[in-house]
Amino acid sequence: MNLMKLITALGLIAEGVIALYLQSMQSALQSVLKHSEAQPRKPNILFIITDDQDLQLDSISYTPLITKHIRDQGTFFRNHFVTTALCCPSRVSLWTGRQAHNTNVTDVHPPYGGYPKFVERGFNDDFLPLWLQWAGYDTYYTGKMFNAHTVDNYHSPHINGFNASDFLLDPYTYSYLNSTYQRNHEPPVSHEGEHTIDVITGKAQDFLDDALAGERPFFLAVSPVAPHSNVDPGNITSENFYMSAPIPLERHEHLFQGVRIPRTANFNPDQPSGVSWVNDLPLQNQSVVDYHDHFYRSRLRALQGVDELVGGLVTRLEESGQLDNTYIIYTSDNGFHIGQHRLPPGKTCGFEEDIRVPLFIRGPGVTKGYVHDAVTTHVDLAPTLFHFAGIPARDDFDGTAIPVAPEFEGERHEHVTVEYWGSAVVEGAYSGIGPGGSTMIPNNTYKSVRLLGQGYNLYYSVWCNNEHELYDLSTDPYQLNNLYPTNSQADINGTRILGRSLNQAINRLDALLMVLKSCQGETCIQPWDVLQPVDPVSTLQHALNEEYDGFYGAQPQVSFDWCDAGYIVEAEGAQVPLTSRHGVSWDVWV
């Protein structure tokens, strides 16, 4: 009997313990659920990056679905710039948040650029998709990633950072009807006979379905090759890289009959403009102009496939119920010119056509139907994605988060650092203008700064042959009148900038460029603090105060000792500006 009582007592105790345990677990689960409700899932990110898409030539007026789903439902940043007007350097800056002089990936192929240089510099183990994975994101990518990422080196090593990927590979990247893609760690697959936009559309939809089925927030990047020129592998040699007009999908071949390149003042101007090799370009005859109009229409037609691709992705997000919790970013790796300044089709210059690109952002908290005037750049995009994902910014970011909402209180800047090394590349049927009819033009190296502030809109550049450019875009929006004085000129016609003489403005611009050409981190964001850390100077307007004339007049000048194909510090003259410590006194910044 005593034994039975003991067993009964033990059973009651066990029941009580179990009940308490279940009650405790229920309470803990309710706490987790309550915390989960208070901390909603991080937003998803869909990132679309086109190739060579212009802003200044009005391509965005020909993409109605992108306008409807992203531009009209978000914010258009109309003062968005790339920092290097060439595919691979621009993309590496985008994925690292660092200027090209800090990545030292400055070309599209070795030894100064391309995927092998990206790996050599250690970025395959330290760039945006990996950072997002560490923050809890599933990451996906399809399309073009880097130049010189080939059918031979795709596994040496594989690109890191993605849960799943399907990359375009050289030498077939730009072949619209003969592309090769490489999925995850599998061998490359040829898609000869299929249009590359149809191929990437299917891959992007599949990855979006995979991402939506996951339990974690996702980052999906889609990088179609359009509207880049078509390049067949047989047209690539060490001396030439012949690029023909892009090939649209068959259903779009008939569109835009009669559409022409905008006939702006800088389109095939009667008088030459620019400096260096650009100033020597001949006036284009009617046959060349007609061909360039055809080239322009081909680009617009090729973009129609991208427009449909984006429309399909947004529709799928809407069907899934995830659209309102997804940031969508649309941009391009660099801009494009056709006929401006008498140039054949191409990029690589510092003109507006090459460095201004579309940037549309929609998503949680982003103002709808808004056009923002803030100066933004490609090195600001990685910090912006960190902001979306709730990740603290890195100290080595050369940019700062873009103000996507009215209440945004982050640092802003009025400047863009634009830099380029090596050869210019010209495209199209009339592109053989380099030495011996080459499509590669040497000595296209330059450093420049683009400034937009209250009452000024300027571009200042120093080329490796030490020619200079200065354009006031408030009075000369098409950059036809170089204000920089030559040896035979004093200040031109008493030209003044913010009430000061041209020479005083040039002193400030050159000193600013001296900082920016080798800046790192915070000094890229707040360069005036390097020059005048004690004085209340944060803009060109402040720096033009008369009391600083002596300080800026004593600054070393930005210059080059020789032209080189890559970022060779020894070729780039003085690197260190003077720093003002107490108004008009100064010492050397170290």
Low-confidence stretches: 6-10, 28-38, 582-590
Q: What's the CATH first level of the largest domain?
A: Alpha Beta
Main pleated sheet = 10 strands, mixed
Report the average pLDDT across residues.
91
Q: Give the CA-based shape.
A: globular
Spatial strand sequence of the major β-sheet: 7-6-5-4-8-1-9-10-2-11
* Structural class assignment: alpha/beta
Could you name the CATH homologous superfamily of the largest domain? Alkaline Phosphatase, subunit A
Number of helices: 15
CATH architecture of the largest domain: 3-Layer(aba) Sandwich
Instruction: Give the beta-strand count.
Output: 22
Strand content: 15-25%
Family: Belongs to the sulfatase family.
Keywords: Glycoprotein, Hydrolase, Signal
Pfam families: Sulfatase
Protein name: Arylsulfatase
Overview of this protein structure:
- Helix 2 (64-71) crosses helix 8.
- The chain is built from 15 helices and 22 strands.
- The longest helix has 37 residues, at 2-38.
- The strands form six sheets. It has a ten-stranded mixed β-sheet with strand order 7-6-5-4-8-1-9-10-2-11, with helices on both faces.
- 48% of the residues are buried.
- The chain is globular and about 65 Å long.
- The chain is 29% helix and 17% strand.
- With 590 residues, it is α/β, with parallel strands linked by helices.
- It starts with a helix and ends with a strand.
- It has two domains: 44-402, Alkaline Phosphatase, subunit A, CATH 3.40.720; 445-588, no CATH class.
